[in-house]
Every structure is written in structure tokens, then in C-alpha cells.
Amino acid sequence: MFETLKLGSRVEMVFKNRLKGDDSTTEYVSQILDFSDDGIICAMPIYEGHIVPLQERKRFEGYFYSDNKIYRASCIVKARGKQDNLHVVEIGLESKLIKVQRREYFRLSCSIPATIRCMTVMNEGKDDFKDSDFSKEEIECTIIDISGGGIKAYSKQKFEKSSVVLLNFTLKFNNGNKEKSIIGKVVDSFKNANDESVFDNRFQFIDVSKSDRDEIVKYIFEQQRNILKKELGYNG
Fold first, then answer.
1. What is the Cα 116 distance to its own chain's centre?
2. Quick one: fold of 105-223?
3. Which of 2.30.110.10, 2.40.40.20, 3.40.630.30, 3.40.50.12780 would CATH assign to domain 10-101?
4. Along the 236 residues of the chain, how does pLDDT read in single tens digits?
5. Could you tell me the pTM of the whole model?
6. Which of 183, 187, 207, 234 counts the most CB atoms within 10 A of its CB?
């Protein structure tokens, strides 16, 4: 039943809020520590430095990250306890593990400095972009969300919807940096609700190689592992 999962795999627990008219969710992060005959032993989630004592029999959507793949299943909290002085929770699967197919779904909240160069020539229907197609002016922005399919970013400048841009940013891996230069299309650009001097932007990658997309997904997994270690108090 659990052959696709491994010890140490990241687990995201997504609980639906039960209040009438409230469609929001609450999400916690954990890690697989062990397996029982019919359940998965995970570290009890920690939120803002405090242990979250999950209630038994509570149901949630579970997302399991293993070998650069994501699996989803309906889950239930079976039991709580302690194992080697660590608070743990046993969860059961109420549905089969289903592989999430699209790598664009792998997302990461982040803060990555980036620059954007706008296209300066009409290029409708063209898919072989050149550096000379874009302005030399570099507009500074901050990436706040990245996935294999695009980014969200803050900027001081509004971008024209559906326009094509060149996105430049650096992915800082544990073992070194990787420079990225990817073509994107403006999906949306509007004033931030809390600060009218800032624009919220969404960019979809339209000319990204498989190697670049795979490297972005690899970066997301590495950062998620780093975050999980910090949340669970691991130093190694």
C-alpha cells in the first residue's frame, strides 16, 4: 500500500474548515517517520514553534512528496502518541494514492530577486525568441511564488497583459547557484491591495526547456526539505 512512499518524505495535510460558508483550508507540514501495518507514522506538525495536536478521526487531504513526485490521498487521523520522545500521529489512507501528474503543480512560496525585460518588437506567432527581441532595460521585481509553470512577482511597474517578457533569476541550491533566463507571458498585473505603489504580477512560462523545468522542480523540493528540517528542529 505504501510502496511509493519513503521514510523522511514530506507530507502536507490540508484540512477543510467546517464553518458554513467557509471554503478556506488549513495546511500543516509533517514528515514520514515509520509505517505500521495499515498506517503511516508522521511527526506531529509544528506551527509557529508550537506542536499542533491533531484530533483523532479528523479527515484531511494528504499530499506526499517522494522521489520528485507528488501523491494525493484522502486521509484520517487514527491515533496520537510519542515515539522516542517525539510527538507523532498515525494516519490512515481512505483512498488510493494517486500520482499528481503535472509538474506545474509543484509550487513554492519564496522571495527571489529577479529582473524582467520587456519585448520591444512585434513577435506574434513566433516561438524562436532572441535576446535582441527584448529591451535592455531591466525592471527589478521579487518572485514570491514559483512553480514549473510560472511565477508570481511583486514589482513597482505594471505590465501589459498578454505581453511577452524575459525573466532572469537565480536559484540558490545547497551546492551552488543556477542562473535562469526564461521567456514568459503576462497573465495578470494589478495594484496590490495593501500597497498601491506595488503591482502583483503573474507570469506563465511559454518557452521553457524540460531541463529548466526539471531544475525548478528540483529546487522546489530541496527548499521544501530545508523548510521541513527547520520546522521539525533538525540541524542535519
1. 22
2. Thrombin, subunit H (2.40.10)
3. 2.30.110.10
4. 777 899 988 898 988 876 645 556 788 889 999 999 889 999 998 877 788 999 999 999 998 988 778 888 999 999 999 988 889 999 999 999 988 765 555 788 899 999 999 998 765 555 678 888 999 999 999 999 998 889 999 999 999 999 999 999 999 999 999 999 999 999 999 999 889 899 999 999 987 888 898 899 889 888 887 877 776 665 54
5. 0.61
6. 183
